[in-house]
Amino acid sequence: MSDLINQMSAESLVKVAEKFQEQVGVGKEGVDAPAFEEVLQQLISDVDSAQKEADESIQSLVASEPTSIHDVVLKMEEADLAFKLMKEIRDKLVTAYKEVISMQ
Question: Considering Cα of 14, then 19, then 79, then 73, what sign does the dihedral take?
């Protein structure tokens, strides 16, 4: 996953960070930012929907419905990338939690 992040351009990383900040409300006073739990639930929901879309595209390909193989592979890669990103976020959260606990 870190290789993928290293391959992304700095510009695209900045756009992703800005989008996340807008969703969370970082740096804006007086804005009711969503709770941390809500942000995580939304991320999990997004990953789940990406995986369901990939599964549906595979099923339609297997059922010989008019589906492009390119679209199926693209949806599978999107779902895989979303899952890997979620796993990386989880790992970072666990590491941060362990550091906080060890400080006490």
Answer: negative
Q: What is the 3-state secondary structure (H, E, C) of 12-68?
A: HHHHHHHHHHHHHCCCCCCCCCCCHHHHHHHHHHHHHHHHHHHHHHHHHHHCCCCCC
84 C-beta neighbours (distance < 10 Å), count: 13
* Residue numbers in the chain where pLDDT is lower than 70: 1-33
Alpha-carbon distance of 53 to 50, in angstroms, equals 5
- Mutual orientation of helices 69-103 and 36-62 as an angle, nearest 10°? 150
Residue with token string 């595209």: 57
pLDDT at 27 (0 to 100): 54
Instruction: Report d(CA 14, CA 5) in Å as an integer.
Output: 12
